[in-house]
Amino acid sequence: MDAAAIVNLVKERLGIRTTVRDTYLDAIAKSVITELEDEKGLTLDAENFNHLLFCADYATWRYQSRDESGAMPRHLQFRLHNLILHNRRLP
């Protein structure tokens, strides 16, 4: 999975046009990829737009909720569970 593509999508979603936050956003994108692959056991495919957009949405939520405590939004939980179930069915 390409962290730069995730960062670009997050910036587009948030309307960020400068590179001031790129270092922080890149770290978030890489941590999302690592969490999904290493902790959740997913095999992410950079060509799969569902994977790419989930990573971007997850990174956006992480960025926006950095000073808040609370659970992952239900729509992200639902999509994550679907990704995990789908990955288990693949050879």
From TrEMBL:
Name of the protein: Phage gp6-like head-tail connector protein
Organism, scientific name: Paenibacillus polymyxa
